[in-house]
Amino acid sequence: MWRLHQALLRRISPLKHPAGWPARGIRCYYATEPKGRKPKMAPLQVSMDGDIYSYGVLLLEMFTGRRPTDNFDNGITSLVDYVKAAYPNNILEIMDASATYNGNTQDIIELVVYPIFRLGLACCKESPRERMKMNDVVKELNAIIKTYSAHTYS
């Protein structure tokens, strides 16, 4: 199994460097074992849980106009906590002031903004097991688009 794993890594590796290769889509470096050495433990299993969390943060960034590294008031230390503190009652106060919207603002807020913030927070749950799966995230995004389009063009 290890040899098959190594053969696949060499085949899909974007770099022909013996020390390792960068894993696509994540910020880490997956070091491959040098030839001839047997592994002491199983090869690294890459998890989608971190990607789901990052996607949630991206949604929150887009709708707040804030970065995860920004300074927040009242002892809040993260963008996720900043949104949690405002959701759902004060969500309008944290929305990106420079964003422009076409159409009825109230409809956009109710049919798009609130569901997107809810989705972003669902992706950013503390426990990876509590986070949404990516296929559910896509279904939810499609449902938001469908609902808004049906309401707008009816």
Q: How many separate domains make up the residues?
A: 2
**What is the CATH C level class of the largest domain, in words?**
Mainly Alpha
Q: Care to count the β-strands?
A: 2
User: Which segments are poorly predicted (pLDDT under 50) over 5 or more consecutive residues?
Assistant: 1-37
Distance between the termini: 57 Å
> Overall pLDDT, averaged?
77
Q: Give me the CATH architecture of the largest domain, please.
A: Orthogonal Bundle
| Fraction in helix | 40-55%
What fraction strand? under 5%
CATH topology call of the largest domain: Transferase(Phosphotransferase), domain 1
What would you say this structure looks like, in words?
The protein is mainly alpha-helical and 154 residues long. It has two domains: 1-46, no CATH class; 49-152, Transferase(Phosphotransferase), domain 1, CATH 1.10.510. 50% of the residues lie in helices and 4% in strands. The protein has six helices and two strands. A two-stranded antiparallel sheet has the order 1-2. Strand 1 (20-22) and strand 2 form a beta hairpin. The radius of gyration is 21 Å and the shape is flat. The termini are far apart. The model is unreliable at 1-37 (pLDDT under 50).
